[in-house]
Design a protein that fits this description.
31% strand; two-stranded antiparallel sheet; 14-stranded mixed β-sheet
């Protein structure tokens, strides 16, 4: 069995180990220490942060919490309600995990975590930076969504050629968007610009307000979520970006995004003006961002949650999202049944 240590709070020892491992780990932005710390700071969480060791070398961090829903105690990933993805952090020195050893370790961890009625590990990616997620590999999970990515090439023409080989219809969509872009540049005063939070002030609330208006207020972008990102921008530890297109000095489209471990996260895109809808402002912005990422040696473009067709058209890679659901107690069976029913309706 692997050895492990459980932290019930983020003390200095926990923080130092986490930050050290994160630098050399397979992980994504939503399991970064800074993001998780902001969520913990904003909410009263019953955290259970587990460090797993193999021969005194840390191989994984499990950022967990036990959340109380009415009378039910649910083990879940920290940030489940606010993160796009929820996963363990896997150290770069991790080798092929032995299934039996890992499962025995997980069983021992569960016994030490405290009262749990149900385990609900949601929003898990099959691969974490191209490394197989053990919570997908070793557990019986259910697949429920696709995530579209772009493995970026050294040249934009190489990217276009790969899209063409993959699907001619997708290549036509990219080609048509490029024609729209050229037409905009020829007919109007056109400007694509990028603001970097390390050097510029980014008005996150203004971007969110525009997004909410565009969604006709049917959204999940609450004040908690806004505060988390406003604080992260202020901390100035993560590179956030505001990328926009202006046509005749009028903002046409904008995207709030960030870069983490050389991955570009296409996070909150927004259409500001309907005056140029015929030019497909959202898609034109994607083309500009792809070009910018290639010029800046970014290796991956992550479209985030959602299976919108435009993401499929521009991507050249897809990975899958899973959830793991298991009841522990008789009381947990009740919640398990409720969740199953709710999830079945969401698929309809």
């Amino acid at each position: 069995m692997y050895s492990y240590k459980i932290f019930n709070s983020v003390n200095e020892e926990c923080k130092n180990i986490w930050k050290k491992v994160e630098t050399n780990s397979y992980s994504n932005f939503f399991q970064s220490f800074d993001f998780i710390q902001e969520i913990i700071n904003k909410d009263k969480l019953n955290v259970k942060i587990v460090f797993i060791f193999d021969k005194n070398e840390i191989i994984a961090i499990l950022p967990l919490e036990i959340k109380k829903y009415f009378v039910f105690h649910v083990l879940q990933w920290i940030g489940t309600n606010y993160a796009d993805y929820c996963n363990p952090l896997l150290a770069n020195n991790i080798e092929d995990l032995d299934k039996d050893t890992f499962l025995k370790t997980w069983k021992a961890i569960l016994n030490d975590l405290g009262k749990i009625d149900l385990i609900f590990l949601n929003k898990q990616l099959t691969y974490i930076q191209d490394v197989e997620n053990p919570f997908i590999k070793f557990f019986k999970t259910s697949l429920f969504s696709k995530i579209y990515l772009i493995e970026l090439k050294n040249k934009f023409d190489d990217y276009k050629e790969e899209i063409k080989k993959k699907d001619k219809k997708h290549h036509y969509e990219v080609h048509r968007t490029l024609l729209k872009l050229e037409k905009l540049k020829n007919l109007y005063s056109y400007k694509f610009s990028v603001k970097n939070s390390f050097e510029n002030n980014i008005n996150f609330k203004e971007i969110i307000k525009t997004k909410i208006d565009a969604l006709n207020k049917k959204n999940k972008l609450n004040s908690f979520f806004i505060d988390v990102f406003e604080n992260l921008i202020t901390l100035n530890k993560i590179r956030f970006l505001s990328m926009e297109i202006k046509v005749n000095e009028q903002v046409m489209s904008k995207c709030f995004s960030f870069i983490y471990k050389n991955i570009f996260y296409y996070y909150i895109p927004t259409i500001y003006s309907k005056d140029f809808n015929n030019y497909k402002p959202g898609k034109v912005l994607i083309i500009e961002i792809i070009k910018w990422c290639i010029l800046n040696n970014i290796k991956k473009f992550d479209f985030g949650l959602g299976e919108e067709s435009y993401k499929k058209h521009f991507s050249n890679k897809v990975i899958y999202m899973h959830r793991y659901l298991k009841f522990i107690t008789l009381k947990g069976i009740i919640l398990y049944s409720i969740i199953k029913i709710v999830l079945s309706f969401k698929k309809l």
